[in-house]
Each structure stands twice: as C-alpha cells, then as structure tokens.
Amino acid sequence: MMKFLFFMVFMVPLSFVKKSFWLNQCLYFFLIFLFLSEISLSWGYSNISYFWGVDLLSYMMILLSLWICSLMIMASSGIYRSEYFSGLFMFTLLMLLISLYCTFASMNLFVFYMFFEFSLIPTLVLIIGWGYQPERIQAGVYLLFYTLVASLPMMVSIFYFYSMNGSLDFFFFFYDVGFFMFYLCMTMVFLVKMPMYFVHLWLPKAHVEAPVSGSMILAGVMLKLGGYGMMRLMQVMIPVAVKVNLIFIVIGLVGGFYVSLICLRQSDVKALIAYSSVAHMGLVLGGIMTLNNWGMSGAFAMMVAHGLCSSGLFCLANMSYERLGSRSLYLNKGLINLMPSLSLWWFLFSSSNMAAPPSLNLLGEIMLINSLVTWSFVCMIFLSLISFFSAAYSLFLYSYSQHGKMFSGLYSFSMGDVREFLLLFMHWFPLNVLVLKGEFMTLWS
C-alpha cells in the first residue's frame, strides 16, 4: 500500500509544472490501473504494509476516491483555460486524494481519525478558493464548525477506548463499550458527515457555493466517510446500539421523506441534487443501524452507487451553468431544443438517481428495503414514501429542465464537446455495469 502513497507524494512537484494539467490526469488513471492490479475481494485485510492495508470495503472506497478525483480534473477545464491558480488547484486536489487514501487504507483508529479530519482542509480550500459567490465563506465556516464541534468528543472517546481496549487497531477490537455517552461521542461526527437529517444544513450550502470539482468530491467521496466510519466502529458499540439505534433509524427514514418533499420545492439545480443526497444517505444510515448483513451490504452498494450518480448529476448541472450562467430551474428550461444529446444524459442520470434498473442504486435500495423491513415492518411506510418521492423529484428535475418553453437570449450555443460526453460516460458506465458483479457488495461476514 505504501507504493501508491509514494506515487501520490512524488506527484506533488508535477502539480506546479506549467502545461501539465492533462498529464496529471493521465497519471491519476495510471494509478487507478495499478490499484486495480492489487484487487482485494475478501473482508479480511490484504496488501498490508506498515499500518496501511485494504479489505473489500476500503478497497472500493479508495477506488471510488481515485476515480472521482481523476474525473474532477476532467470536469475542471475552466480552471485549465483561465489558468486561474491551476497549479494550486492540482496541489489541493492531490492533498485531498492523499488524505482520503490514508483515511480508507489505515488499519488504526487514531490514524483514521487524523486523516479523516485532515481531509476537511483541502475541501475548504476548494470551496473558498474556486467557489462562485461571496457566500462561499459562510458555507466554508458551516462545513468547518459542523465537523469540528462533533469531532472533538470523538477524539476523547478514542483515548478512552484505548485505555479500555489496549489497542486502536481495527483487527484487535474486542472490548464492547456499554454506555450511551461513548456511543454518542463516537458516532456523532459520522452522522454529521453523512449527513443525518437535523445536522445536514452545511451540505446544501457547501454544494451551492462549491465549484464543480468541490461538489463532485463532496457528493462522491466525503459523504461516504461517515458511513465507512460507522461500519468500522459499530462492532464495539453493539450493547448500546441494539437499544438506541431505533432513534437514528426513525430520524434517517422520516428525515429522508421530509428532504424528498424539500427537493420538490427547489429552484436551484445544485440545491435539489444536494438535498437528494441527504435523502439517499438517510437510507444508508437506516441500513447500517439495523446491524444486519443485508443492511451493511446494502449501505455499501448504495454508497458506491450514490457517489457515481450524484457526481454525474453535478457535472450535468455545471455544463448547463457554464453555458447559461445560472443554475435556476426557471432559466434552465427547454434544453432538449438546444442540446438533445445532453438531454439523454440528463435522463440516464435522473433515472439512476430514482433507482431504475440496471443501476447499482436499485441493488442498494433493494438490499436496504430488505434490511429495514425485516428489522420492523413499520419501516415500509416511510420506505415506500421515500421511493415514490425520489422518483418524483428526479422526474421533476428532468422534465422541468429539458421540456417547456425555451428561455432564449441568454444561452450560449456551444454544443457539448467530447470531453464532456466522456466525463458523463465515465460516471454512468461503472454505475450501470457494477450491478453485474453484485456479489462483491454482499461479501460481509
């Protein structure tokens, strides 16, 4: 695992070399190719070097991080054309990738916590440095303080757990902690990061103000840190979790329903996609909290699917924004008249977002429904509402933006170029092909 880390560290000087923007992207893809050769298909750790190693969960999360980061460069051609601190942008992106790689590959809880917190800084720099409006400062402060307020209690609980367990290595987690305060301190930071309803307000703000690359990494990978952390740590809190998880499942499902209704009232395309992320992660939260095999596998599938689908939708929103200069749904109308080829992509990603076959979202949703209904039949009410309204807001997004009377006069008649179609294809193809190897998502033991 160290070789991939060295690969990324030695790419730092290349970030500042002029005219090396696309060379960096080629190296990211080469890194993905190397990483695929180290494939890990078991739930035990493999490829161990020092305190880095991967099992299937961390392997897929690292692969998703590498994939989304390489596509972020492809989506950010505006920074390349304007040469607006492009070297600093590449450096920030690389620091973000290194921190995510170290977060997912670490086999030690404290190292995981350290890089989990460090990943916040490059994200903040992306939002404040390349965001669109003055409100990006406020969005950055929201992001920073929501995470920090919840993360400091976690650090104290990590020290307590070390004194009780004697080790912070995931492999040696034998001590079960049986009191509520530890459970709350340990999970709160992950609930904020997911984000759970009630602590989700930072997410729409951050998405609306972030550049396309910031939105892609937030939706694609950063939200998955919360689910990943809970999957790793829930095993030491089972005595409390079986009593308390009911509360969080209810918040996840009822919150997911409320947020689905909020989506139907959005006029900003990015805000709509951001709120839909909250609804999907509410399902993931419910699946993890049921503590059963279906729930964990479904949450894993849904995290990977949501990372690709949501990131692709943000790319589409950015393509309209670059041509029109606005993200308002009232101005983004009748686009099928101007760019019918892009309307196909809007339809494909909207249908994937509402879990239509053959997308990986469908596999994840079926597993999560299985998990939650076997846990309690009452969950069926809110699951059916969330499923229905996710179709409603996805079709609302598609039909409102593509059909209707065209708002002419502001639109730049620039057709989609090959880079944009390739970018969308590289989101959509793995999203709809990974479902053929669905057994990888169910190897939980």
TrEMBL record:
<comment type="function">
    <text>Core subunit of the mitochondrial membrane respiratory chain NADH dehydrogenase (Complex I) that is believed to belong to the minimal assembly required for catalysis. Complex I functions in the transfer of electrons from NADH to the respiratory chain. The immediate electron acceptor for the enzyme is believed to be ubiquinone.</text>
</comment>
<keyword id="KW-0679">Respiratory chain</keyword>
<feature type="transmembrane region" description="Helical">
    <location>
        <begin position="170"/>
        <end position="192"/>
    </location>
</feature>
<keyword id="KW-0472">Membrane</keyword>
<dbReference type="Pfam" id="PF00361">
    <property type="entry name" value="Proton_antipo_M"/>
</dbReference>
<dbReference type="GO" id="GO:0042773">
    <property type="term" value="P:ATP synthesis coupled electron transport"/>
</dbReference>
<keyword id="KW-1278">Translocase</keyword>
<dbReference type="GO" id="GO:0048039">
    <property type="term" value="F:ubiquinone binding"/>
</dbReference>
<keyword id="KW-0813">Transport</keyword>
<protein>
    <recommendedName>
        <fullName>NADH-ubiquinone oxidoreductase chain 4</fullName>
        <ecNumber>7.1.1.2</ecNumber>
    </recommendedName>
</protein>
<dbReference type="InterPro" id="IPR001750">
    <property type="entry name" value="ND/Mrp_TM"/>
</dbReference>
<feature type="transmembrane region" description="Helical">
    <location>
        <begin position="87"/>
        <end position="106"/>
    </location>
</feature>
<comment type="similarity">
    <text>Belongs to the complex I subunit 4 family.</text>
</comment>
<dbReference type="GO" id="GO:0008137">
    <property type="term" value="F:NADH dehydrogenase (ubiquinone) activity"/>
</dbReference>
<keyword id="KW-0249">Electron transport</keyword>
<dbReference type="Pfam" id="PF01059">
    <property type="entry name" value="Oxidored_q5_N"/>
</dbReference>
<keyword id="KW-0830">Ubiquinone</keyword>
<keyword id="KW-1133">Transmembrane helix</keyword>
<feature type="transmembrane region" description="Helical">
    <location>
        <begin position="236"/>
        <end position="259"/>
    </location>
</feature>
<feature type="transmembrane region" description="Helical">
    <location>
        <begin position="329"/>
        <end position="348"/>
    </location>
</feature>
<feature type="transmembrane region" description="Helical">
    <location>
        <begin position="368"/>
        <end position="400"/>
    </location>
</feature>
<feature type="transmembrane region" description="Helical">
    <location>
        <begin position="271"/>
        <end position="291"/>
    </location>
</feature>
<keyword id="KW-0812">Transmembrane</keyword>
<comment type="function">
    <text>Core subunit of the mitochondrial membrane respiratory chain NADH dehydrogenase (Complex I) which catalyzes electron transfer from NADH through the respiratory chain, using ubiquinone as an electron acceptor. Essential for the catalytic activity and assembly of complex I.</text>
</comment>
<dbReference type="GO" id="GO:0015990">
    <property type="term" value="P:electron transport coupled proton transport"/>
</dbReference>
<feature type="transmembrane region" description="Helical">
    <location>
        <begin position="297"/>
        <end position="317"/>
    </location>
</feature>
<dbReference type="GO" id="GO:0031966">
    <property type="term" value="C:mitochondrial membrane"/>
</dbReference>
<feature type="transmembrane region" description="Helical">
    <location>
        <begin position="60"/>
        <end position="80"/>
    </location>
</feature>
<dbReference type="InterPro" id="IPR003918">
    <property type="entry name" value="NADH_UbQ_OxRdtase"/>
</dbReference>
<dbReference type="GO" id="GO:0003954">
    <property type="term" value="F:NADH dehydrogenase activity"/>
</dbReference>
<feature type="transmembrane region" description="Helical">
    <location>
        <begin position="139"/>
        <end position="164"/>
    </location>
</feature>
<feature type="transmembrane region" description="Helical">
    <location>
        <begin position="112"/>
        <end position="132"/>
    </location>
</feature>
<keyword id="KW-0520">NAD</keyword>
<feature type="domain" description="NADH:ubiquinone oxidoreductase chain 4 N-terminal">
    <location>
        <begin position="1"/>
        <end position="103"/>
    </location>
</feature>
<dbReference type="InterPro" id="IPR000260">
    <property type="entry name" value="NADH4_N"/>
</dbReference>
<feature type="transmembrane region" description="Helical">
    <location>
        <begin position="421"/>
        <end position="444"/>
    </location>
</feature>
<feature type="domain" description="NADH:quinone oxidoreductase/Mrp antiporter transmembrane">
    <location>
        <begin position="106"/>
        <end position="388"/>
    </location>
</feature>
<feature type="transmembrane region" description="Helical">
    <location>
        <begin position="212"/>
        <end position="230"/>
    </location>
</feature>
<keyword id="KW-0496">Mitochondrion</keyword>
